[in-house]
């Protein structure tokens, strides 16, 4: 009897091994240019068309999975990516009430991923607002991506965020995890380090709906909260900073605490950026009647770009003002390109040259036999 049981066990193990080999052989080979299962050479998944991006598209959370929390995210990579190539990583955070794919198309860095060799991580909050409970998820995604590309291959790490995502970038940039990684922070209507003059043109819904209009209405003023008064402006760590918002939101002051910190020169105006092509997304839910401060339908654009030159240690401090735009009109292609170019002109290398090393990924789940 024992001999029969042993023989049956041997046959079962052999059968399982043969099945596993068959399954492995049936798996398609990884694409030539791939990163963490993403076919980098394929057209970006759920990229908005030039007009009328559908709700079913912008509400997507992403096809990639962060292995520890099992939460989804988007990962975009250069179409010619190969292991060992130098890359610039962008972590792009959506605003409150928004979605990962809305953010991905609002600030469409994926359109210049080949030009600037970008690896773009666009995460998704299940509550559609960021808080400390999400920090582990953000850390894990960065760990996962840096481990995949190799820390020595990361030229720049850019932390970007729109609205509450920008405020979140301010909250986390100098935390123990991010302070030795972030080379550049980009705040897209998410608060400036330094003074601004609010435009007073409304924020969010524009008051009484059109069918009830007729009475005078003054949109409420809105100002993003300042950083805590007990800490240095921008936090207790060093990074380059680019602030961008619409003219109908606020106008940044001609001075900056970060420019002072890095001993930059007086602010200068660079050539305007002209965009004949409109952005991809907008907020159609708050247009009855809407406000100029919140933003309207995407259209062609023009942007003023200001920079504080000659900053110490290769830092970049800059302001961007999109003329005639508000909080939610998607970024046009040329100003997106210009902002990324500004970011990459800053000193990088925190991850590549630092002591931090990403932890190994969690072990794969074992089969139940």
Compose a concise summary of this entry.
The chain is α/β, with parallel strands linked by helices.
- Approximate helicity band: 10-25%
Order of helices and strands: HEEHEEEHHEHEHEEEEHEEEHH
pLDDT averaged residue by residue: 89
Number of strand segments: 14
Q: Judging from the principal axes of the Cα atoms, what is the shape? A: globular
Q: What is the oligomer described by this structure? A: single chain
Main sheet specs:
10 strands, mixed
In DSSP terms (H or I, runs of 4 or more residues), the helix count works out at 9
Strand content: 15-25%
Structural class: alpha/beta
| Rg | 23 Å
Q: Which secondary structure elements does this structure contain, and how are they paired or packed?
A:
Layout: H1 2-26, E1 34-35, E2 38-39, H2 55-58, E3 64-65, E4 72-76, E5 87-93, H3 100-106, H4 113-116, E6 118-123, H5 135-149, E7 154-162, H6 164-172, E8 184-188, E9 196-198, E10 240-246, E11 250-252, H7 257-261, E12 268-275, E13 301-308, E14 317-322, H8 333-344, H9 350-353
Parallel strand pairs: 5-6, 5-7, 7-8, 8-10, 10-14
Antiparallel strand pairs: 1-2, 3-4, 4-6, 9-11, 12-13, 13-14
């Amino acid at each position: 009897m024992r001999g029969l049981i042993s023989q049956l066990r041997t046959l079962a193990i052999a059968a399982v091994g043969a099945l596993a080999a068959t399954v492995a052989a049936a798996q398609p080979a990884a694409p030539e240019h791939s990163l963490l299962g993403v076919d980098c050479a394929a057209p970006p998944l759920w990229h908005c068309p030039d007009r009328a991006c559908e709700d079913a598209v912008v509400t997507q959370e992403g096809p990639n999975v962060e292995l520890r929390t099992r939460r989804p995210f988007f990962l975009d990579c250069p179409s010619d990516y190969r292991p060992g190539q130098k890359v610039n990583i962008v972590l792009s955070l959506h605003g409150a009430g928004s979605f990962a794919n809305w953010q991905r198309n609002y600030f469409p860095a994926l359109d210049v991923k080949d030009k600037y060799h970008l690896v773009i991580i666009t995460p998704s909050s299940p509550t559609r607002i960021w808080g400390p409970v999400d920090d582990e998820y953000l850390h894990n995604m960065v760990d996962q991506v840096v481990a995949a590309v190799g820390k020595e291959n990361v030229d720049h790490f850019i932390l970007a965020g729109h609205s509450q995502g920008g405020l979140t970038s301010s909250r986390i940039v100098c935390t123990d995890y991010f302070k030795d990684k972030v080379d550049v922070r980009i705040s897209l209507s998410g608060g400036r380090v330094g003074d601004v003059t609010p435009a007073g043109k409304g924020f969010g819904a524009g008051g009484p709906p059109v069918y009830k209009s007729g009475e005078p209405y003054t949109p409420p003023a809105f100002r993003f909260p300042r950083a805590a008064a007990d800490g240095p402006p921008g936090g207790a760590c060093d990074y380059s900073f680019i602030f961008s918002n619409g003219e109908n939101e606020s106008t940044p002051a001609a001075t900056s605490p970060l420019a002072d910190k890095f001993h930059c020169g007086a602010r200068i105006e660079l050539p305007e950026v002209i965009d004949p092509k409109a952005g991809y997304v907008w907020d159609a839910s708050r247009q009855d009647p809407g406000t100029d401060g919140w933003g309207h339908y995407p259209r062609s654009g023009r942007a003023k770009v200001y920079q504080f030159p000659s900053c110490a240690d290769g830092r970049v401090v800059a302001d961007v003002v999109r003329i005639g735009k508000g909080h939610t009109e998607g970024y046009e292609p040329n100003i997106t390109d210009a902002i990324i170019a500004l970011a990459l002109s800053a000193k990088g290398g925190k991850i590549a040259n630092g002591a931090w090393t990403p932890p190994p990924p969690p072990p794969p789940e074992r089969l139940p036999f």
